[in-house]
Amino acid sequence: MKVLITGGSGVLGSSIRVEGNRIEVPVIAPLHCGLDVTDFEQCRDWLRALSPGDVLIHCAAMTDWKRCHDEPQACHSTNAVGAWNIAKAAKERDVLLIHVSTDAVFNGSLRNEGYCEDDQPSNPTSVYAISKLAAEHLVRETDCRVLIVRIGWLFGISPEKDQKFIGAILKQASAGLQIKAVDDKRGTLAYAPHVARRMLEYALNQTQGIRHLANQGVVSRYDIARKVLALWQYTNPLMKVSSCAFPSPIKRPDFSALSTIYPDAELPHWDEALEEYHSIYGNRLEQERRMS
């Protein structure tokens, strides 16, 4: 069996390649500029190397919520039409498609427990989320063999390269700044190596349907910041604020936590995930801090 990945240079794609190497499963990824998913003929030509029994993991997407908001046509073309093209090509080759989706397809309205696979997403709150829900529908329309994997708040890249929340917290902490973190938006973390491991298990088992992959435990950004500061032994003041402190035209769901009804989708607790992340990257940053 071969596994091909779109978006192989991203956080999740990189983790899948590392995990594939560890368990000796061939994982192939095109260069970032080597495949335009909005072009069906390119998708078809690229997938001609696949045979029935092989697996395609579709990670490529426009994921910057601000860019998606500013460029809705490009967002829809990449995330929705691109997924449709990939699924049509997978159908022609009779290969399993593992399509990566997001917790953002749920709007979080009047919710206080995690969304499971039986819950039906509706009325997503952002351009990004609308494009990803449209992708889910379009992929199903092709009638290809598919597993849709919705993922929580993904993290796992090194803090130096991380442009998202955990990287931002550590950069502010190292600069000696006060940290402000939102506590009125709640979700679930998803540590990329944990997610990658499960996705390759699904590939090997030819699993179809829907799975939710997120580390156990519902968290706010404030909860995450408090844990990160403790792990890295920073003593910066931490202030709990509402999302009004960071005005944005982009509406994020108030609650997007994922849960699962499937034993094969259960991941370790988010505390454990952050501790594992720190065990890999924490010592290096602490050494650099002592030397500076």
CATH topology of one domain: Rossmann fold
Helix content: 40-55%
- Tell me the structural class: alpha/beta
Query: Tell me, what's the shape?
Result: globular
- Widest sheet: strand ordering: 2-1-3-4-5-10
As a whole number of angstroms, the C-alpha radius of gyration is: 19 Å
CATH homologous superfamily label of one domain: NAD(P)-binding Rossmann-like Domain
CATH architecture of one domain: 3-Layer(aba) Sandwich
Average the pLDDT over all residues and give the rounded result.
Answer: 92
Helical segment count: 9
- Element string (H = helix, E = strand): EHEHEHHEHEEHEEEHEEEHEEH
Major β-sheet, in short?
Answer: 6 strands, parallel
Counting DSSP E segments of at least 2 residues, the number of strands comes to 14
What is the CATH class of one domain? Alpha Beta
Strand content: 15-25%
Describe the fold and architecture:
With 292 residues, this protein is α/β, with parallel strands linked by helices. The protein has a domain at 3-155 and 188-217 and 253-269: Rossmann fold, CATH 3.40.50.720. 41% of the residues lie in helices and 17% in strands. The protein has nine helices and 14 strands. The strands form five sheets. It has a six-stranded parallel β-sheet, with helices on both faces. Strand 1 (3-6), helix 1 and strand 2 (27-28) form a beta-alpha-beta unit. The longest helix has 22 residues, at 72-93. It starts with a strand and ends with a helix. The model has no long low-confidence stretch (mean pLDDT 92).
